[in-house]
Amino acid sequence: MIKxxxxxxxxxxxxxxxxxxxxxxxxxxxxxxxxxxxxxGWVRTIRKALDMSGAQLxxxxxxxxxxxxxxxxxxxxxxxxxxxxxxxADQLGCDFTYALIPKQDINLIIEERAELxxxxxxxxxxxxxxxxxxxxxxxxxxxxxxxxxxxxxxxGGRALWKKES
Length: 165
Known about the structure:
- The chain is mostly helical.
- The protein has seven helices and no strands.
- Among the domains are: 42-91, no CATH class; 106-160, no CATH class.
- It has helices at residues 9-29, 42-49, 54-61, 65-77, 82-91, 106-131, 138-155.
- The radius of gyration is 26 Å and the shape is elongated.
C-alpha cells in the first residue's frame, strides 16, 4: 500500500479550484467569440423578426411605447442594464446570455502578465546596475527574466495583478 501526505491541503484545494476557474474561462474562449451585435441591437432585431410592434412589446412589459424605444436605443448605446435585457428577452421568447470571452487562453494571459512584470523588475534593477557600471549580457538578461517570470507564476494570484508603480 502506498501512503502519501499532502503538505498543505489548503493550497492544493485552492490550486484545484483555480484550475477549474481557468477551464471555465477557457471554455468560453473556445466559442471563438460572441455573435456580432446587430446595428439596431438585439431587442429591436428580434422584435422585428417576430413582426411585433414596439407598442405590443411595451404592453407585455407594462411599459409605454416610448420607454421601449428608449430601452432599445440604450441597448445600442450600451447603457441598458442586464435586468432590463433579461425582462425584454423573456417577453420576446428568448434566452438571455451574458459572457466575458477571453481573447486568448487564460494561461497565456497569466504568462504574458508575469513576463511583463519580470521585464519591468529587471529593467529597474538594470538601471541601478548601469549606474554602478555593471552590465548584463543579453543571455543573462533572458535567463533572469525567465527566472523572475517563473517565480511570479509560482507565487501566482494577486502578486500578478498588483498595480504597477
